[in-house]
């Protein structure tokens, strides 16, 4: 109870502080007004406060419509005030703030017209605001010598990287990351941010990028995406750079990293390499200090995990090797080709203990299992991207991807089903799975601007394929015991060869006709075909007093054709975009075993669509959308073939299933106030599903679970999220609050009885950190999440489990050459279903020493999991069982590492 009160007390205090902060937005410590030479007020001018010693960023704001600005979060000290705007000469002022308000009055910006030999001379400024771009000078933010781009982004105001690796800029999710305007490893943020050094970057540009269609036609459709572009320093262009690092420690722990880059005005070339056995999947050792993801070798693919309760873990022992190369070339302006290849090897082994409570009306029982596993994976990934926007009347974009996976899995599971009255069954399973999967896709999009302004057409073609072969060898020993005198033993040997082939082709066409007055008529058409083929040969031998052999062999086809025709109206002005459409959708499905009579369905749907978006000014966006979607049954749900590979979990399809109709309403708002540094975003989505496809579960007296599917009733789902961040006036601190809620209710049939399953998830997190990170980076916070699952069959089976995390982080410089970093996390797990509580403290620390002034050589000592808490917990609630899995993890180790920067000599001249 005390922990519960402290947790909510902490959140309440932050909330009260936020209200106090919002209500106290009075005149700032430093204020003034920015005018042009003609005495006209200048709006959206960047006003930046810099430290005197090294000109690092302290705070910034922008001017309002009257040219006024104020900076209220100013500790006492000496500063440089920079005032800059595109097309004007920058103004610098030395300030000494003693605690008394400084009113600077009117400040004049004069146009930048001075040219020398055709070259405009412009001062380097910390923050520059353009029409759709905010550019931050990377030199204004202090980063360590071995920091990557992720560390740099964490220090830029308005930038956040969440625990899932998603990047948010000023409240909006970043969809793509580029280097010098070109894609780097497909624009994947996880690769870009973890593999380029921060000290190679000159500017960080946050861009509101128009859609390809809007960019060509010049008609604003409101479909912008947020893109981050890193521009390189001139000393890094035409001059290879990178770094190499390696380390080793106790228990034979090691790692090695390499990245090398060379960029010219036309060509970019990058190489990445990594090898380690310390559960790091990224390419930087700091991933571990941020609780990076590992690989969990224990799971149940047939069960859909409930909401987003699964968290990234560091289960077992992971060996990783990575190699990648990226090549890009610009043939001429706006025509470029980019390609990359990435190879990943991983081997994950470990052991886990699972506890499960299964319920089926009055026939409830428990299950426990010990599992040892080894998973090995070889992955090859090739990406190609061609863009040609050189013609002002049309553009062509081609993207392609090829992926090859080879997975070998070994599992030795010893399980036991039992009841309180003594009936039990032992299920020992030894499984070996070899899977080879090859998949790829290619997308081609062409946009053409026609003679009349606003008239255009667009076509697109996308093809995908997926080829998978899987060999499964299982040995199962089933021992059924009713009492000590009555025991039966059955052995099963199962060999299964399975081939899955999926191919799809989709074509779309869109024509836009201007109606005048910013009104447009759109005719859109979509055609798609998807084919799923499954080939199975299964030999199951039952070893008892007389052996029994069963052979299952079949070819199964599932063919789906989708035709959509949409008539739409859009209205586009500077601040408002609307879109309304009515869609006719015809879906034809044909499926069944080859050489047998197939099932055929043909259904027509009417789908309304509407969107309203309001963008009153930069940093504010409000959006309301409604859409009806149709989800056809998946091939496994409608299959006419029984899958009994697992003798305790049999799956049957239902060929009579019909498509689900999903009505989705989404409301979102994004507010980022540059003047007060307030950032707010929220999203609410409600889904109402008719003819919901639900699970039907039957559990017999031998604990065999048979899963099938039915259309039954409705399904409701509500997702909400909220993020809020602002500075605390006068304290030099910033706080952030995040909240996610998930509500889901649907029916399930358990042993022929209708059961309503309701799940409610709640997560709230709060973080407090300092604003000025030039010398010290401090961060502390807490996260609280709870899952409530209730059932209408038996209320005493209702489940509630919680997870609490408290963390703190310190990163500081102990002189010019020594850096210290430490992070402490404390986890608290509670669960009423298993009456188990776990408290897990994790403590990591690093100390680094740079040998030279340029910090080209760095020695680092890492202390990981100092308290040696090598445990990981994962929980989930499914249709008719609760499960808790406890796994071993790496535990404590120490590593000494060395980092060397490649070709880091300063450029002369």
From TrEMBL:
<feature type="domain" description="Outer membrane protein beta-barrel">
    <location>
        <begin position="449"/>
        <end position="896"/>
    </location>
</feature>
<keyword id="KW-0675">Receptor</keyword>
<dbReference type="InterPro" id="IPR008969">
    <property type="entry name" value="CarboxyPept-like_regulatory"/>
</dbReference>
<dbReference type="InterPro" id="IPR041700">
    <property type="entry name" value="OMP_b-brl_3"/>
</dbReference>
<feature type="compositionally biased region" description="Acidic residues">
    <location>
        <begin position="295"/>
        <end position="305"/>
    </location>
</feature>
<dbReference type="Pfam" id="PF13620">
    <property type="entry name" value="CarboxypepD_reg"/>
</dbReference>
<feature type="region of interest" description="Disordered">
    <location>
        <begin position="291"/>
        <end position="313"/>
    </location>
</feature>
<protein>
    <submittedName>
        <fullName>TonB-dependent Receptor</fullName>
    </submittedName>
</protein>
<dbReference type="Pfam" id="PF14905">
    <property type="entry name" value="OMP_b-brl_3"/>
</dbReference>
